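Lab notebook: predicted structure, single chain.

Context: the supervisor wants predicted structures on file for every construct in the current expression panel, including those that have not yet been purified. This is the next one on the list. No modifications to the sequence; it matches the entry in the shared construct table.
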Amino acid sequence: MDLFNRNSRFLYDAPGRLIINVGDNGFQFRVEISRDGSEGIDNMKIFCYDLMLAQLWAESDRESSPRILIHDSTIFDGVDERQVRLALELADRESRIYGFQYICTLNSDMVPYSEFAADFDFDSFVRLRLTDESDEGGLLGIRF
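Prediction complete. Output recorded below exactly as produced.
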């Protein structure tokens, strides 16, 4: 719970709350972050929860942990550019600390270049760019 709170505090300057209850049907999870209710904040709840799991897995059992966290670009749908920036910088920092890999897909128009910290070189992390400009721009022969 401390990891979740720390991750959400990094994004919103206020700790989120991960609440776990045990009911008749098993575990029940609830996540709260201040300014709750928008699609973007709901997606950042998922981001913080997923990041917390990656941190826990990497920290507790290096042998059986997948040591990888993958998000599709939809995780950032409706998210303010500042929070996208903070999430990407947080994922970079935590993946280095805990020794896991963070992979995400982003549409080029969603990358908040003007928001990144001066020492964060987003382009140095890009491993593949897909484009529909030519047949070579796809993945596995598929044009996007």
